[in-house]
Amino acid sequence: MDIDIPHTAPLPPTPRRLPRRLDEHALAWLVAAVTLVPLGVVLASLWQPEGEVWRHMAEFVLPQLLINTAWLIAGVAVGTLGLGVSLAWVTAIYDFPGRKHFAWALALPLAMPAYVLAFVQIGLYDFTGPLQSLIRDVAGDSSWFPSIRSRGGVILTLTLVLYPYVYLLARNAFLTQGRRALEAAASLGLSRRQGFWRVALPMARPWLVGGVSLALMECLADFGTVATFNYDTFTTAIYKAWFGLFNLTAASQLASLLVMAVLALALLEQRARGDKRYTATGRGAAHRPERLSPWRGWLVAGACLLVLSLAFLVPMAQLLYWAWSVAAEQLDLRYMGFVGRSLVLSAGAAGVVVVLALVLAYSVRRKRDIASRLAARLATLGYAVPGTVLAVGVFIPLAWLDNHLITAAHALGWPGVSEVIKGTLLVMLLAYAARFLAVAFEPTQSAMQRITASQEEAAASMGLGRRAVLWRIHLPMLRGGLLTAALMVFVDVMKEMPITLMTRPFGWDTLAVRVFEMTSEGQWEMAALPSVAIVLAGLIPVILLAVQTEKHA
Amino acid sequence: MKFRPLLLAAAFVAAMPAMAEEVTVYSARIESLIKPLFDAYTKETGVQVKFVTDKEGPLMERIKAEGANTPADVLLTVDAGVLWQAEQMGLLKPVKSTVLEANVPAHLRDPKGSWYGLSVRARTMFYNTQKLKPAQLASYEDLADPKWKGKLCLRTSKKVYNQSLVATMIARLGEAKTEQIVRGWVANLATDPFSDDTMMLKAVAAGQCEVGIANTYYYGRLMEKEPTLPLAVFWPNQKTTGVHVNISGAGVTRHAKNEKGALKLIEWLSSDKAQNLYADVNMEYPVNTKVKPDAKVAAWGDFKHDYINVAKAGELQAAAVKLMDRAGYR
């Protein structure tokens, strides 16, 4: 694809070439089509009336679910922002014991599948778990212990899994802000704390909004975690309509409502943000972390360790224990294949999705109009659709196309053809893009905000074409954002089940497929083995990213 | 690692049929439960069995979307309600087979022959042996009695096993009576419903409650790991309707390319040779009455099971879901 199009400033007319070069709008909508096709399948359900199911849902199911969902969203928003921002701030601005290690380790919970953490949490903290059993042995009664299978428990668990989105993006914001803004604030008499609230935080807005919206979209689309807690949210209604009432149409309608609510919220936020710019002041002048006094330093280190323990170390220890207990009979050579395929899919998807997100973000930046922003918003909606519903949305057009290709193949004299594009890697990668574009788009777009228009203009005035500007100005400056995007997509694809299950070729089982197999029969101990493998594989890019971020900060 | 080629041309070649006979199975029953059987089948007959696993809902949508081009010859899944739904969606082809009619009791298969049960899963009651004597227990219906207040544990109503149980109760007792019972259960709950049978059983064993309803194989697995738990099986409704049973089963798909091969595989799975392997790997009961269950399973005792046709569970599932919503059973 050619994105080397003429500048908007008056330039000598260039002779038209064939094929005509692609306009940024066309590019943005082309990328959006990857999501719009499956989304369209889901939204098409809105034309079929399912009055009876709706009446039942409206009377007996939805009222409580909406309250539950609102609580969950509010709780996770507050939780992920609080944890993500404060951890990002202390690791970016201050120096304290273990800071370098915490800086990357605090992103680790990202690699933990949320439903697995949910199960581990219940196993550890519920009535029958070791903690409450111990309390009963000692004190005789544990009924005062707050139940983990509760609203608070769900919010806590999802916060612990999802805060890394905010953490990674906020850290990126703080590290690229440059120190001059904070120095200027200090010279105007603002304390560190005031500088944080009045300068650093407002300047990080696109990153924070990006991180939180990823966390909330995942929350809204989540089924596995809330189901493990038996906490009914909007997705519960979706799956109830499909699996309980055998009505996929009603389920798709409910999912459509969810998507439209998310779209409305996204557009509102964009409006509120207006045309504010978030460019860096004083590039290249990165922060030299400020050393904290010893007791404060240890306090901060202790807080980091507590979060890390709750979100990662303790559950990981439990998983390792279970994995160890089944490793002898479960771990065999086939795991080479599971790991290999997971890595191929995750790395491939990370590459494809980041490139698509870059095209999208670039188009929005060039055009700055409703059409391109809308394209970006629509393209990133796949993340808010419950996974299994989206998987069906991906599969139906795919099967339709394949059926036509098969007919054509038969007509051309290949009678044995039963699959053409179905079950190919390319299709799987595009399906992942439909789901995870948001994950790559948010960090990419945020990072793009740091590039000033004057930098681009300067480059253009020196005779650089657009492609050269993209390669020589944009890409180097976007490095941190793109790496974050790639990491998050990589880890998310590693954990993804519904699309992998539905579009994989025969015999192409991955680690996530193994987790599905074990958990679907309630064999959580056995599921620990592939889960541990997922976390370990996720560690590689997390560490790579951390090293890169430190180097280029 | 087998790497699937990206190029379409290569995909054409890859999709060419193999020389040996092949049957393709879409399975909601997981790999570890079916692979040993398929391997044995291949060894015995030389027929290759290709399969893919997924959840039942997506699998059915997949067959539907693929239409006449579906590679699937057999749909293998858990729960009669799901098989009933697959039949309703027109995904299955009714087949007549004297072998299957002989091996599978009439109430455990579709009256039209669209699907056949292959293993029986009993959903029964379990109690804490330190708190209760079996004589105190009677039936599913009895658990709605106020004497069980604060002593009952249940799994969520969103699990199809409970939906099937309530659906068969509706078939027998009617909606009004059933709703009254379910409301009674909810009033007696000791704690919020669990998302999982094993968690529920552990709660009974730990004394958080005294009695609960679960599938036997969860109990079997749990006791294998923790044999000292004060937990025992109770077979309810022995003087009346019998213990609620469900099945895992299979049907030939409407557009099967290898219909004969598909039927042969299902027949083989119901045979004496395969039934023990099929049921025993998951501590379920064989569907074929000529085959005895695994010794560990047999040790839980004989019981009378409900002879209502399991297809009823599918037919009334939506009604059951709505009823449980009305009764506040989450």
TrEMBL record, chain A:
Its main location: membrane. It is a multi-pass membrane protein. It is found in: Cell inner membrane; Cell membrane. InterPro entries: MetI-like, MetI-like_sf. The chain crosses the membrane at residues 26-47, 67-90, 102-124, 152-170, 207-229, 241-268, 298-323, 343-362, 374-400, 420-441, 469-491, 527-547. The keyword Hydrolase does not apply. Coiled coil: none annotated. Residues 66-269, 339-545 form the ABC transmembrane type-1 domain. Keywords: Cell inner membrane, Cell membrane, Membrane, Transmembrane, Transmembrane helix, Transport. PANTHER family: FE(3+)-TRANSPORT SYSTEM PERMEASE PROTEIN FBPB 2, INNER MEMBRANE ABC TRANSPORTER PERMEASE PROTEIN YDCV. Belongs to the binding-protein-dependent transport system permease family. This is Iron ABC transporter substrate-binding protein. It comes from Chitinimonas prasina.
From TrEMBL, chain B:
Keywords: Signal. Belongs to the bacterial solute-binding protein 1 family. InterPro entries: Ferric-bd, SBP. CDD domains: PBP2_FutA1_ilke. Residues 1-20 form the signal peptide. Pfam families: SBP_bac_8. SUPFAM superfamilies: Periplasmic binding protein-like II. This is Binding protein component of ABC iron transporter. It comes from the Bacteria. Coiled coil: none annotated. It comes from Chitinimonas prasina.
